[in-house]
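User: You have something folded?
Assistant:
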Amino acid sequence: MSIPDINKQFERVPAATVREAAQYQPAILADVAGRRGALHGRIQALRPRMRFAGAAFTVEVRPGDNLMIHAALALAQPGDVLVIDGKGDQTCALMGTIMMNVARERGLAAVVMDAAARDSLDIDEMDFPVFSVGTNPNGPTKQVGGRIGHPVSVGGVTVHPGDFICGDADGVVAVEREKIEALLPLAAQKVRSEAHRIEEIRKGNVDAPWLHAALVTAGVLKQGESL
């Protein structure tokens, strides 16, 4: 039995979980997820203020062709994040102002693509979150098939349809749909811990309490030695 190129039936991370997870920075979620899930730094916000959180709606295209992205825009649901495996191609843009307006009007939370965008000034005025591998004024073709709703590799990370994904000025982090809810208490604890550490630093307690033991474990210092 063949697997269809367009998969419309997949479970999304619940909207309530997205709302709760959205309060945490991607860096916090990456840390509590085992320091994994962060997309390669080549994928960045078009403007540093842009941020988002939502459920991944995955698209795989051939480099330089956006036919399947148009199909995805017709199928994606409000709150989805279009996550596009564009093979890291920067020779042309896969999306620009017209498609971003469609995405916003359909209620999508953001667009993340391992490829280039264009019309960045217009997108800036729209204030719609777009994360891409830079920009390029060339337009794409609309001739080659691809896949929708299948696992994709974006920025070196495997993203499954329905996974949680979020981004800010630091970059983008994806967390498996099945794992994100269990990470939320850990994220809350890490936020509290970091706030306490910063408070201590501002009081003058700048020494890292874990550093000496780590240096000994790494063999940099011997037992009894100090910096």
The chain is about 30% helix and 25% strand.
